[in-house]
Amino acid sequence: xxxxxxxxxxxxxxxxxxxxxxxxxxxxxxxxxxxxxxxxxxxxxxxxxxxxxxxxxxxxxxxxxxxxxxxxxxxxxxxxxxxxxxxxxxxxxxxxxxxxxxxxxxxxx
Length: 109
Hints:
By secondary structure, the chain is mainly alpha-helical. It has helices at residues 3-22, 36-50, 61-72, 74-79, 86-98, 100-107.
């Protein structure tokens, strides 16, 4: 119910819209090769996915495809996936699921 929550969701939605725009003409954010820009956004995407909030880009197929490509890279696997803690992942998923209706209400504004 905090104002900061609404601000955060709104900013994440704006980020996804921006990413979607960048991906309309290229495979990655700055052309057709993976760059530091893609890597910099990957933790945000990963956290949203862990919170079961990937519905935030369900209407953005370019974003979904880009994130899938990122997750397939050796760097993502070695630098991020290898460090996932199953217990933490489960708790994050539960917390995200519990907030889904509030997030969707903010997105509909």
